[in-house]
Amino acid sequence: MNQYPPPDQPGPYGQSGPYGQPGQYVQPGPQGQYPPQGGGYPPPGGQQYWTESPKGKGMAITALVFGIVGLLTCWTVLLTVIGILCGLVAVVLGVIAMVRARRGAAGGFGMALGGVITGALALIIGVIVGAVVWIFFKDTGGTDLIDCLNKAGNDQSKIQQCQDEFNKRVEDKFSVTLTPAPTR
Fold it and tell me: Would the pTM of this model clear 0.85, i.e. be above it?
């Protein structure tokens, strides 16, 4: 059903047809329908609409990915350093992407903000886990073990003696018995 006035009758605002200026005729499309409001057919006279190209979101996406990887790796003892580094990269890239998005030079402000938040959490959690591990390591005599191993060099008997002393210290401190893994 055609809801627009015919081209020869004025519309509600005095223009002829659905979108034309007074006295201007707008061609109906296929099946006699006029274009929907907002376009659908190019404007008369060969004019083209200018559309802005989509803004780049690459830096915001990268910040978010680094933040997520940082959050996933900051909890584990062996990957804490990776989590901290990923968190740091996420915060830096996220802040840059947020500034660019605010200026209108790039898109993805929400993803950049997510990258900053996840990166900051990864940094905080990674530093806390690292500090706890370092305190535990130092408290159980880990630094003494490293010094002993450095002095032992390549002498296997001295290396074994250093490891035995460290195991004894851990057993005494925590009232546990460290048993070696069974051999086959």
Answer: no
